[in-house]
Amino acid sequence: MIRITAAIMMSFFMSANCNAATWVKLFENNTSKITLDKQSILQKDNLKRAWVKIEYKVPQQNLESPDKEYNTSKVLWFFDCGSQKSATSQVFQYLDDQLVYSVAIDSKQAEFIEPVPETDVDIAMRYICFSDRTPETGSDIKANSQVSKANSEATKSQDANVKKDLPIAAGNSKPDSQTPKTDEEIKPQVKQPNFKSDSSKVHWSYEGKEGPDIWSKLSPDYFLCEFGRNQSPINIGSTVHASLSPLRALQKFPAKEIINNGHAIQVNFKEGNMLVLDNDPYQMKEVQFHTPSENTVNGISYPMEAEFIHSDSKGNITIVSVMFKEGKANSALSNLLVQIPAADNGPAQVKARVVLSDLFPQEKTYYRLSGSLTSPPCNEGVRWVLMKSAMTASKEQIELLSKSVRGHNNRPVQALNGRLIVE
To answer: What is this structure's pTM?
Structure first.
């Protein structure tokens, strides 16, 4: 990455401070607020640029330095309105107005990519690229947002709370921090993510003409399966050591039904099982079994992986993954497997008592990263927690699970694209 020298940075900010910032509110929800400095909008050749500020309701963890937190991010974005692409040139992160991180790259060296629809950069691009027609209201932004969506026809937004800021390094310069003169409100129509663990609209599979390499071509809703930058599963190789908080979970409510949806064996649990992550409560919804494992460790695949899917009140998803190696039979699995129904034959009630703790290792250390659903529509913004310790299942149990879904049901490992795995 090409760093901008301190002299250039100081010159830039001196010129930027000639006009007081006029922050326009573009969007706000329960997790963040996005504003844009109208005074910073400039155009040169075919590019427009502007400063955007993202204020988070809860401090965020920086992926490059997980021990550092920030609750405000100021970003200088460049937009190519003709091709509907954007690039990040500068990033400044603050914790309670104190600059803690910064990074810069020459805009000529920055990579222009098409934003995922409804993310913060996409919202800003819609306003910037149509600001000459809609300087004060958001009515036309709603209409023009269809132009952005039509270019990609992607699945809805990844979790707005998960950001892809540039890698960062400590710095002392900061952009204009004067008190805004105005706080005009622009209200683009932004829909919240609609996470689904399975899609019934279009048939897909794990091999052949409807396999993973073809998912994005089966439906516009599956756009992210090919073009997403934070896709799962991944290979756990190099990691960053951090002081991760111990997992806090309530796992005493039993399984209620088992389903064979044709893609995976899924077990639904009674309400009440909870996971607390980043002080946010998540309710455990279901567990899906994959044979062999989807995620790998140092390039090694396990014969089976259980993925416990949790969601919070806003629909944000956390998946806790437990690997299974071949060994002693798991008694909880035995109680479930005897009741596996035929594919698409509806749910079967679980008669024996099976609780979550029966499927979890005693050792609770884990890896963590941001990723996606591993099946269409491959929505991103999913928090992944991968347990380090593996459970055991017998060869017969693993084979029965695999035969029940007519073979393997694991998506191939996806590229990290600069993401960090924290442990």
So the answer is: 0.56
Q: How far apart, in whole angstroms, are the C-alpha atoms of residue 152 and residue 231?
A: 17
340 vs 336: CA distance, rounded Å:
7
pLDDT above 90: percentage of residues in the chain: 48
Dihedral, 285, 291, 295, 299 alpha carbons, nearest 10: 170
**Whether residue 346 has pLDDT greater than 60:** yes
CA atoms of 222 and 153, how far apart (whole Å): 9
d(CA 73, CA 91): 7
Q: Where are the domains of the chain?
A: 6-185, 208-404
Q: What angle (nearest 5°) sits at the alpha carbon of residue 127, between those of residues 126 and 132? A: 115
| pLDDT of 327 above 50 | yes
Does residue 263 carry a catalytic annotation?
Answer: yes
Say whether pLDDT at 342 is over 90.
no
Check pLDDT > 50 for residue 198: no
Overall fold of domain 208-404: Carbonic Anhydrase II (3.10.200)
Choose the catalytic residue: 203, 241, 263, 290: 263
